[in-house]
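Quick start: load a record and inspect it. Here is Prephenate dehydratase:
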Amino acid sequence: MRIGFLGPAGTFSHAAVHASPRTPADAELVPAGTVHATVLAVQSGTVERALVPIENALEGAVNATLDALAFDAPDVRMVGEEVLAVRHCLVAAQDVPLAAIRTVLSHPQANGQCQDFLRRELPSAAVLPAASTAEAIRLVAAGEAPDPPAAAIGTALAAELYGAVVLREGVEDDASNVTRFVWLARDGAVDDAADAPGGRWKTSVVFSGDGDGRPGWLVRCLSEFAFRGVNLTKIESRPARHRLGHYLFHLDMDGSIADPRVAEAVAALEIHGASTRVLGSYLAA
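Running the structure step on this input writes:
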């Protein structure tokens, strides 16, 4: 099996794939340059599975994943999820005092998860984005980061892989920081752990409608779940990309789409003029 992940080697996505019991021992791991490219690799059939970040405890939703699923990957479904503890390190090409660092490079999510540390310990450093935490460390280790001396935020694994030095461990703003990842596959695939006993199921959907400009439209849509006793665990809005002020709504809920209450609530969205797509039903991590 070919499994896609946000590369290069040493990212948290890479670590999550290795830590997952769903990853076959003989799997071929295929890195992609962006989250969007990782999702599209499943859509195109380049890989059979992919593991992508979708939500962080400190920074919230990973919009690149939500948008890729909603707009660019109509045949891709969520078939599982993982939760990974996230521990960030400040890394440089060589041992250097923090006061000398002029630039800090990392993925925007990682920069956001460490903003208190950056404001407190590196107030004068420019904080710049990179395609991934591992790519940031690779650039710093290779002396390719702008305006040196530079540092990067990422994993201790990436520091080891690229020959860099860990200056400080645990620079995330909260020690309980975790990221939720979702397994993706082409439509028709099922959760590899679907037969596990006693598991808790979740369903993810995305919906939108021209009625979102009418008072109470969203409340009426969401009430379909409340009336049937379906617990919504997450609600996220994203721009609908056709007119300012219109949105897509991503919902996570307890229960499988095979549960009549869940299926009826999702179907009832059409009563309110909503266009709905089930992104997947899967076992919760």
